[in-house]
Structure to design on (316 residues):
DNA sequence: GTTGAAAGATGAGCTTT
DNA sequence: AAAGCTCATCTTTCAAC
């Protein structure tokens, strides 16, 4: 098995539609792409089996569930080596409030996205959980004032 | 109508499950939360109508669709005022490769998440599209080397 | 691509608290 | 009254042709 997956224009359309509406029925999806339901479903299943479509998720309104603080946090480690990164990761994965963690180039080593009820709760997460990780050197927080775009549709490279 | 929504423990469970699996059937969801299908569905519908659940999305494997470059970009504007922000936003919304745009505190004014096929395509997006926006002052890119956590489940504040 | 059986969704009316 | 349950009907899925 090689890593090359043949994806035609129809598959692209399917992926685009399912990204913007993960709950569309197969019947409506098939209409939109101009195929009958059976082959449409077959394509979707194949995309899921290939791992090209990974999963489906509901998106919630954070304000409405009481999440008032969202931040980006730039994290530098005390020396970047495999052991330190492993240690950091193991701990980060345990912290529910850290919803994203990316290893990046640039002045910081990692970029986190962190959510919390309010500034107090946020401070508590950062002090009690993130700062407590031994290998963490410095932290720089940027509070999100508002989110102006949050597209769930990844554009296809042509 | 006031803004207060009563959400009990069952609703929370529903929201948590639908965030991690947006395509679970109502039958299975009802099992998990310990209700019969009808009231379960009723609750889900109410959460959707309240806007607490905003939407459903398929998540794709970016590598497999040929998206090789993901970055965070810190953007500073030439003076931060309503007009400049409006101008910036209108243009940013048109750029498909910019999948997120957040207004933040800190040294930069905005944080973008940008995706592209490769470094060349990325450079092209940044030079031809983002840099071209009149009000943009400075840009600072951080390339994502790897994503170590990307949770779609927002933890409920208690 | 079409058809049909099985699974799931969903509304009406009944029961419980 | 508010929430949940059961049943009957309609829709969707999905495998066989």
């Amino acid at each position: 098995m090689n890593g090359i997956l043949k994806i035609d224009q129809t598959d692209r359309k399917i992926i685009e539609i399912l990204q913007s509406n993960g709950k569309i029925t197969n019947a409506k999806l098939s209409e939109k792409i101009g195929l009958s339901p059976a082959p449409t479903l077959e394509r979707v299943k194949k995309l899921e089996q290939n791992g090209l479509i990974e999963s489906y998720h509901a998106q919630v309104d954070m304000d409405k569930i009481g999440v008032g603080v969202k931040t980006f946090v730039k994290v530098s480690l005390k020396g970047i080596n495999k052991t330190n990164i492993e240690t950091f990761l193991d701990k980060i994965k345990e912290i529910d409030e850290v919803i994203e963690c990316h290893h990046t180039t640039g002045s910081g080593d990692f970029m986190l996205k962190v959510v919390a009820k309010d500034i107090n709760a946020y401070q508590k997460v950062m002090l009690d959980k993130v700062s407590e990780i031994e290998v963490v050197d410095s932290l720089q927080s940027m509070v999100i004032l508002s989110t102006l775009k949050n597209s769930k549709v990844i554009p296809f490279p042509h």
